Amino acid sequence: MFLFGKKKEKQPKMKIDPDSINVIREINGKSFAIVYEIEPDGTERIIGKGGGCANFTADDFVTIICNGSEIFRCTVESLRASLLMSGNGVRLEGLTENGDKHKVIAIFNKMG
To answer: Is the pTM of this model over 0.85?
Structure first.
């Protein structure tokens, strides 16, 4: 019996999306020419140019690093990644450590 209201419902734990993990594995080692952030209103702004790459960190996060700075970081469980239809980039979205949704589009460097 609960004296002060209803029992708290647990938030369902997000499950790792194997397709998104495969995308990250596929783009591992590819460099990015440019990275755009997708704002909540749908507009895009450049957040990184040249020298970018994606990787897994030891603490179960996926990061995008551009010119030595981390510009995207999300938990592996919240990661949703897909290659662009053109094949020249990837769209990544996920939750930050604060629980904020973060979306980016990274365009591959044509040189490799």
So the answer is: no
Determine contact, residues 34/108, Cβ cutoff 8 Å.
no
Q: Where are the domains of the chain?
A: 18-108
- Distance CA(29)–CA(14), nearest Å, equals 27
Q: What is the pLDDT of residues 50-107, one digit of tens each?
A: 878 888 776 788 888 888 888 999 988 899 999 999 999 999 999 988 888 999 999 9
CATH class of 18-108: mainly beta
